[in-house]
Amino acid sequence: MTKNIHIIGSGFSALAASCYLAKEGYNVTVLEKNDTLGGRARQYKKEGFTFDIGPSWYWMPDVFERFFADFGKKPSDYYILDKLNPGYEVYFGKNDSVKISSELKDIYTLFENEEKGSGKHLKTFLDSAKSNYDTAITDLVYQPGVSPLELVNTTTIARVSQFFSTIRKQVRKKIKSHKLIQILEFPVLFLGAKPSNTPAFYNFMNYADFGLGTWHPRGGMYTVIEGIVSLAESLGVHFVTNANVEKIITDTANNVTALLVNGAEIKTNLVLSGADYHHTETLLDKNVRQYSESYWNKKTFAPSSLLFYVGFDKKVKNVSHHTLFFDTDFDAHAKEIYDNPQWPTDPLFYANFTSITDKTSSPEGKEAGFFLIPLAPGIEDTKELREEYFHKIINRFEKLTNQEVKSHVLFKKSFCVNDFKSEYNSYKGNAYGMANTLLQTAFLRPKIKSSKVDNLYFTGQLTVPGPGVPPALISGKIASELIIKNKK
Ligand SMILES: Cc1cc2nc3c(=O)[nH]c(=O)nc-3n(C[C@H](O)[C@H](O)[C@H](O)COP(=O)(O)OP(=O)(O)OC[C@H]3O[C@@H](n4cnc5c(N)ncnc54)[C@H](O)[C@@H]3O)c2cc1C
Is 216 near ligand 1, meaning CB less than 6 Å away? Predict the structure, then answer.
């Protein structure tokens, strides 16, 4: 008998899962509410400019290679990757920035010049980061989060103290320079929590940063989505866009029997949801939901964001493809995200100008700029606040980088908390899911298989292993493996 499965959503995790399930012989239908595929990794095009709406940092190239290799393919069969040099640039003040080279030896020199003796500490730190990366990426993050025992092996037992210490403590033990601390604490921000709330074991993100480097798929991150969609189609996956799943219908034995899609019932006997976990549960009757509203409310979510996609009518100076503005107090901003949610007084922000290295993203002589301010999920979002913050950061940007850009804005489009909710059904408008804190790691995250509905599974950034594109690909793999195993 043909095995049918319906997948809700088309983010990286859902797309990855669709490939694994189709390869296994499932008849896969992906239902996406928006008019394009890719989830948070969609694309915005205007007047010859092209912007990635969501992810822009391509880290952990080995995870992408491993994904495509599972289908006898390589990333280069679908897109061309360039290693960025510098990987990125960090501003600490006016005309005061450092560039993070793609070469480790240059990074050691940068550290040594900033703080004598820090190069040696960096070497020890990166040795531990690499070893954690090998343990985490070859094994731990590919576990389905079913049992605590998945985390127990001789390597992790030897490193148990790293689960109970934090990145912040580990970094600050030996390094004293404020700038170097900021640089070393930056990578774990991708995991969605403060460095003081992220286990030291996650220093493997520093190996991903300095050891593996920052890459750019020519044409932008969306080319990766296009690559996976093309792979999925070659495996027979059927995609339906503008397909809003409004209800997951269960029978008296608590099995899914149908989905209500744009008002019409579609019969099904197996469902995997790659939509935000919290939202998916609200599509079920209350008696078959696993987690209460208070459960979700107590969790640490990754920040939301205020984003601007800006077309400039000239080239912008003194910036790199990825540029971080760490000239204000990170701790104060973090408090306003996590501890006392409010619009930040003096926000850190991130800007990217892909057109510096990728000529396809803007017309010649112009620049495509993307600005991101991390914000507390769930806070008020108005047109006025967006505008106020655009001016706040663009004024700072001009001062720090020593140039005038405001009169060169051809257009700008914003995206914020309300859009995350309406476009992706995101819980409190989070941008990238549930953070990886100690109590939100592995088997402590929301489960891949529903404990109440036998034929309902979940994938994506709110379940294992966590936020980010590489984890989403991994999530798709482990969710589909669990489905395949359970149905044999
Ligand atoms: C602004 C931003 C910047 C980021 N930067 C980076 C980065 O640089 N590098 C990195 O690795 N990661 C980054 N991330 C994180 C990364 O993009 C995400 O972790 C990842 O893309 C999430 O994939 P997903 O499969 O979990 O789900 P999503 O991408 O959220 O996809 C879920 C899909 O489900 C659909 N859906 C929801 N409800 C329904 C419904 N009822 N019916 C049908 N469909 C539905 C949604 O429309 C959406 O398409 C960033 C995220 C954002 C938002």
Answer: no
Q: Could you give the CA distance from residue 456 to residue 138 in angstroms, rounded to a whole number?
A: 27
The yes-or-no verdict on residue 488 having pLDDT over 70 is no
Q: Is 187 in the pocket of ligand 1 (CB under 6 A)?
A: no
The answer to whether residues 357 and 321 touch, using CB atoms and an 8 Å cutoff, is yes
Give the span between the Cα atoms of 98 and 95, in whole angstroms: 10
Residue spans per domain, the chain: 3-80+219-298+434-487, 103-212, 301-424
Q: Give me the CATH code for the 103-212 domain, please.
A: 1.10.405
Pocket test for ligand 1, best of 137, 469, 478 (most atoms within 8 A of CB): 469
* Distance (Å) from CA 54 to ligand 1 centroid: 8
Q: Is 432 in the pocket of ligand 1 (CB under 6 A)?
A: yes
CATH of domain 3-80+219-298+434-487: 3.50.50.60
415 CA: nearest ligand 1 atom: 1
| The two structure tokens encoding residue 370 | 């993307």
- Identify the three-state secondary structure at position 205: helix
Return the DSSP state at 257: E
User: What pLDDT is recorded for position 466?
Assistant: 94
Determine if ligand 1 sits within 6 Å of the CB of residue 39: yes
Cα 274 to ligand 1 centre (Å): 9
* pLDDT band for position 48 (cuts 50, 70, 90): very high
Residue 251 alpha carbon to ligand 1 centre in Å: 30
Instruction: State if residue 10 touches ligand 1 by the CB under 6 angstroms criterion.
Output: yes
For the domain with range 301-424, which CATH number is right: 3.30.519, 3.30.1490, 3.40.50, 1.10.287? 3.30.519
Can you tell me the mean pLDDT for 433-460?
A: 95
Cβ of residue 476 lying under 6 Å from some atom of ligand 1 = no
pLDDT tens column, 233-273 = 999 999 999 999 999 999 999 999 999 999 999 999 999 99
For 295-332, write each residue's pLDDT tens digit: 999 999 999 999 999 999 999 999 999 999 999 999 99
